Backbone:
C-alpha cells in the first residue's frame, strides 16, 4: 500500500492518491499478482478551502516537500484541475470493494484463515490514512487489524545495509518515486524479497506460516 498526502497527520490533511498491489504467499513462494489499485482523489476544493498552498512554512505540511519533487509527480498527485480524479467517497468505496473482491479471489479458494494483511513502509503512516478515509465514509477497514511494516520486517530478517534507516526506506527502487502506484509496486517487490530471505534463513520452518494474502 502507498498513499500520497497533503500532511503528515490524517486529522490535519487529506489524501491525494492511493496505490495498492496484491501479493500472495503459498508453499513458500510469494507472488505479485496482476491485480492493482490506483486512484487519484480530486482535492481541488479542499486545497483551496484549507489554504494548503499557503502552508509552505509549516514543517508538518508536505507542501514544501512536494515542491521539490519532479513536476510529473506533482501532477500525478495534486496539480491539474477540477477534472482530475474522483471524489473521496468514490475512492473509499472502490478501494473497499476491490479488497473484498481480492479476498474472495485469492484467500477463500485456498481456505486461508483471516483477512488480507495491510502491508506498507512504514505501515503506521499509510494504515492511519486509509483507515481514516474509510471511517469518514462509514466503511470498515476490510483487512486484518494485524498489519506488517516492511521496514520492521527488514530489520528482523536481513542484515542488508540497503535497509539502513539513514540510507533509504526500501530496497527496490520505485520506478517513479512518490507516485502511489509505483511506490506500492516497489513495496510489493520488497515484501516478495523479504519473504524469500526469511525462508532461506529457515524462518519458514520455524513459523510454519499458512497460505496468506497481502496488500502492499
Residues:
Amino acid at each position: 500500500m502507498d498513499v500520497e498526502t497533503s500532511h503528515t497527520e490524517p486529522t490535519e490533511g487529506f489524501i491525494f492518491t492511493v496505490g495498492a498491489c496484491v501479493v500472495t504467499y503459498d508453499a513458500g513462494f510469494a507472488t505479485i499478482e496482476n491485480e492493482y489499485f490506483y486512484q487519484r482523489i480530486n482535492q481541488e476544493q479542499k486545497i483551496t478551502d484549507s489554504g494548503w498552498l499557503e502552508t509552505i512554512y509549516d514543517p508538518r505540511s508536505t507542501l514544501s516537500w512536494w515542491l521539490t519533487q519532479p513536476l510529473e509527480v506533482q501532477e500525478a498527485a495534486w496539480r491539474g484541475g477540477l477534472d482530475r480524479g474522483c471524489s473521496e467517497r468514490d475512492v473509499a468505496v472502490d478501494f473497499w470493494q476491490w479488497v473484498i473482491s481480492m479476498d474472495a479471489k485469492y484467500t477463500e479458494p485456498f481456505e486461508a484463515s483471516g483477512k488480507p494483511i495491510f502491508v506498507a513502509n512504514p505501515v503506521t503512516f499509510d494504515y492511519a490514512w486509509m483507515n481514516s478515509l474509510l471511517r469518514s465514509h462509514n466503511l470498515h477497514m476490510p483487512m486484518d487489524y494485524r498489519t506488517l511494516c516492511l521496514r520492521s520486517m527488514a530489520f528482523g530478517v536481513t542484515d542488508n545495509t540497503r535497509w539502513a534507516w539513514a540510507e533509504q526506506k526500501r530496497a527496490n527502487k520505485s520506478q517513479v518515486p512518490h507516485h502511489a502506484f509505483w511506490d506500492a509496486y516497489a513495496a510489493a517487490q520488497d515484501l516478495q524479497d523479504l519473504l524469500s530471505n526469511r525462508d532461506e534463513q529457515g524462518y519458514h520452518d520455524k513459523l510454519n506460516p499458512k497460505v496468506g494474502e497481502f496488500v502492499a
